[in-house]
Amino acid sequence: MLRVLLVEDEENIRETVKLNLELDGFEVVTAENGRKALKHSQEQHFDVMVVDVMLPEVDGFQVVEQIRLTDRETPIIFLTAKDQAQDRIQGLKKGADDYLTKPFVFEELLLRVRRLIERTSKNPDVQPDLYTFGGNKINFATYEAVGNQGEFTLTKKEAMLLKLLTDRRGEVVSRQHILQSVWGYDVYPSTRTIDNFILSFRKYFEEDPRTPVHFLSVRGVGYKFVE
């Protein structure tokens, strides 16, 4: 049985969509807020996720961005009342595969869900998620990397932070956003922890760690990755 994570804070919509998906043969797990959605996504396997944007505690854009730090394969559809072009663009940039606005016809949602699952099932082999810059290489699927001192293996947290920075290359990412996305919303490490990770990245990937060109500090805000 195919499994769906349905994230929707409006009870009537959540229960209606859940019932219709179950009648069509899906097993449905629901979450009414972003924190619960992240917990389910970390602890269980799903064949597709349907996520509202305007959620309490952690919004849908943040939920998907955090999921995509470790899961690039599970199809995700945004189901939301936010129907402006910039909202759709932002949703797709965060890692969603599709975007359906409310009000919607259930048959259309079901068709999109099944097409995404079918597309994924036709490509069951996970392709290495490779990223290169300068003479450096990072495989986010295996955590293997090649830097200025040769091959080595990243920790999971290192890979997640690198993924966040490289996905948002050219943008300043605040320390608070890094802590929430990489360490989670219930863990509060010192911001010095992030500084130490960045120092490690400079040692791994910069020709001259004392004069970085890729991992840049933005005083009082956070960090920026530049290719």
Automatic annotation (TrEMBL):
Gene3D superfamilies (UniProt xref): 3.40.50.2300, Winged helix-like DNA-binding domain superfamily/Winged helix DNA-binding domain (1.10.10.10)
This protein's GO CC annotations: cytosol; protein-DNA complex
Q: What are the residue boundaries of the OmpR/PhoB-type domain, all occurrences included?
A: 128-227
Q: Which InterPro entries match?
A: CheY-like_superfamily (IPR011006), OmpR/PhoB-type_DNA-bd (IPR001867), Sig_transdc_resp-reg_C-effctor (IPR016032), Sig_transdc_resp-reg_receiver (IPR001789), WalR-like (IPR039420), WH-like_DNA-bd_sf (IPR036388)
Residue spans binding DNA: 128-227
> Which GO molecular function annotation, any one, does this entry have?
transcription cis-regulatory region binding
Q: Where is the Response regulatory domain?
A: 3-117
**Keyword annotations of the record:** DNA-binding, Phosphoprotein, Transcription, Transcription regulation, Two-component regulatory system
Residues the record lists as 4-aspartylphosphate modifications: D52
- The protein depicted here goes by the name Response regulator transcription factor
Native organism: Neolewinella lacunae
